[in-house]
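Entry 14. Structure prediction run on the chain below.
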Amino acid sequence: MPQPAPAYRERLLPGPGGWSAAVAFAVILGVALWPVDDVLSISTGVVALVVLVALAWWTSPVVSVSPGPDGQPVLRAGRATIPTPLLGTTTVLDRAAMTRELGPTLDARAYVCLRAWARTGLRVELVDPADPTPYWLVSTRRPTELAAALTASAPTGGTAGTAGVMGTAADGRDQPDR
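Output returned:
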């Protein structure tokens, strides 16, 4: 039986700066070996670029909302998964709010799936009394779409909901965007 398509799926690949750095490293490696042998130089540069691209792909976490093995929807962020009925309030975080969440307000017990090149994210409260993790902080380039997928996957009458987008007021206080 084919696996149903996920409601949301994103691989947190590096941005243009990360890919440019990989290309620059491969070129520099090739140029450094040019005095030794031009064929060795070019082949080493190409191999380095292929290895760097493969590593970037392999180490980039996937964030998804999809049916789990038992058919129940789950949120997956990197290697961690949690059934969506165990999720509470979802808060979309802009760049400033994400920075604040990762700084002074971060709870050491929180699960964090972070990639620096994805500057926005989502804070998802957990309502599982058996889980000591108070919330998940997940990097994503499309936080509104992820929040919508989580809300849509919540069981009818469940506790999952969207709190809104957190922004920063002119005086530096947190303000929900409406």
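The chain is about 35% helix and 30% strand.
Filed with the rest of this week's runs.
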